[in-house]
Amino acid sequence: MLKRIVHIFLVMVFVTTGASLGYYLTRQQVFALPQHSVELGLGVAVLGALLGLLVGFLVAPWLMRGAGALIAIIEQYLQKTPTQDIIMGSIGLILGLIIANLLGSILSYLGFIGRVIWILTTIMLGYTGMVLFVKKREDIIGFFANLARLNRDKPVRETRASNIKILDTSVIIDGRIADLCASGFIEGVLLVPAFVLEELRHIADSADVLKRNRGRRGLDVLNTIRKESLVKVQIYENVRGLDANAEVDTKLVQLAKKLSAKIMTNDYNLNKVAELHGVTVLNINELANAVKPVVLPGEEMTVQLVKEGKEPGQGVGYLDDGTMIVVENGKRYVGQTISVLVTSVLQTAAGRMIFARPRQQRENGAGSEVKLLG
After folding, report:
1. CA–CA distances in Å: residue 61 to residues 5, 48, 143, 252
2. Per-residue pLDDT reduced to its tens digit, 185-199
3. Cα gap 72→106, rounded to integer Å
4. Are 325 and 354 contacting, i.e. CB atoms less than 8 angstroms apart?
């Protein structure tokens, strides 16, 4: 159906061209026709239209085959050409034609010679722009990438210091930062320095399976935050003023001081070093401990003992949030779920530990005391 439409369109073009040519020849008095002979002029136009119809029927199929072959060659060439080259070449061609069009308005005053120069200039500038943009595509893309990076870094410098939080490798690999961002408790800008991203990449490429999995998990966490969270995440590549030979932790502290920002980490050593330099640290482990339910001595709870403790007779269980419960004389209840009474709570840098004793033991002990008193 499409071929028929194109065929009819080409024939109509030839008919219109033939009629116009006949009318033009009549107006220019190429033929010796009587003056004011409108009928003869109309006849010449009709004759031209008929000749155009005949030529159209004969030539249109050849033109369609030639156009199809040319399109196939162009399509085959474009399939081999990288998309980047096609885009850059098109941009260069358009810019070259725009410049040539601006020159055409000046050259038009030179008459016929100016038009010839304008046509040659158009061809030359279009070809030059296309070739130049294709050959210099890497430099052009790098130039615009630098501009985008500068615009991306600009909001960081203008953001209030309290809203800038620098992520270190440990907090990214930990993964809980994604849940915090999704919950809406984290505000401002999360900054990921380029050297932290590079360290993550090295971990993800490690030969050790465990390290490789941790590195890939960190990269997945970053992608999740950037795509699904409302918190803005930026990759910061401006390392000017930082010690190039320093370790990652040292660079983090230097960058935090430079931007007057805070550091989010799970690293205990980085936490202490940053505090010595006067840098505010947001430790997710401390946050997790702070939001755990408060347990007081004498409180009763139910726990499943899963293993023996380090000391003789101890049993160890865990709450849903991972808090360890050490039960005195609980070894014989390992594998069972029992009621215990809290005796004391120990808060450490690594977390919180709860010490307890079986409630049954206390009741038995109380019964024994009563029996003895009796």
Report:
1. 12, 20, 49, 72
2. 887 888 888 888 888
3. 39
4. yes
The rounded distance, in Å, linking the Cα atoms of 267 and 167 is 11
- What's the sign of the alpha-carbon dihedral 325, 318, 303, 294? positive
The H or E element containing residue 183 is: helix 176-183
Is the model more confident about 2 or about 269? 269
Say whether pTM exceeds 0.70: no
Q: Pick from 23, 11, 24: which is nearest to 52 by CA?
A: 11
Q: Which long-range contacts (CB under 8 A, 24 or more apart) does 86-92 make?
A: 88/133, 88/134, 88/137, 88/140, 89/130, 89/131, 89/133, 89/134, 90/130, 91/133, 92/128, 92/129, 92/130, 92/131, 92/132, 92/133, 92/134
Amino acid found at 74: I
Cβ atoms of 168 and 194 closer than 8 Å: no
Please write the tens of the pLDDT for every residue from 318-370.
Answer: 887 778 899 998 888 898 889 999 998 887 656 678 899 998 755 554 443 33
Q: How far, in Å, CA of 270 to CA of 167, rounded? A: 12
Q: Are strands 300-308 and 337-348 parallel, antiparallel or unpaired?
A: antiparallel
Task: Give the distance from CA 130 to its chain's centroid.
Answer: 29
Element of type H or E holding 206: none
